[in-house]
Amino acid sequence: MPLSILVPMILVGLPLVIGLVWWVNRGRSRAPLTACQAKDHFLNDFPNAVVDEILISDDGKNALLRLVDDNAIGMVHQMGQNHLTRLLDKSSVIGFETRSAGFEFRLNDFTLKSVSFENESLNARPWLSGFVNMEKN
To answer: Residue 41 pLDDT more than 90?
Structure first.
């Protein structure tokens, strides 16, 4: 194919495809994560886990799951239409910072560097204190 035809096709076609994908997905907004959904997504990936308690972040995009096994906690992170689930042990949390309005986990994971929980999430401090050093920075 001659270059005089190929270049205009690419210059018009590429933005057209990108715009079409954006237009199709623009109306899709995901509802906040519920405790039931977080548990379902987590158990799909870790069917042998036994969930004791679930904490949803205020923005509804993250959930921490207290497991019967005290050596790990579960995490569900919402990314658009998809969910990232992790089984976190003490080695996967490289930092933990408490704030006046919540806390933040810094993770040893290149796909998700940190997860923040705000306000009402302070209820999790008692069961998280056994998992991570609350003063760890």
So the answer is: yes
pTM summary value: 0.69
Share of the chain above pLDDT 70, in %: 82
User: How many of the other CB atoms lie within 10 Å of CB of 68?
Assistant: 8
DSSP letters, 61-92, are SEEEEEESSTTEEEEEEEETTEEEEEEEETTT
pLDDT in tens, 113-124: 888 777 655 566
Identify the residue whose tokens are 């810094």: 106
Where residue 45 falls among pLDDT bands split at 50, 70, 90? very high
Q: How far is CA 78 from the centre of its chain?
A: 5
Each residue of 101-124: b (16+ CB within 10 Å) or e? Answer: ebbebebebeeeeebbbeeebbeb
C-alpha span between 118 and 57 (Å, rounded): 6
Sheet holding 62-67, edge to edge: 51-56, 62-67, 72-79, 82-89
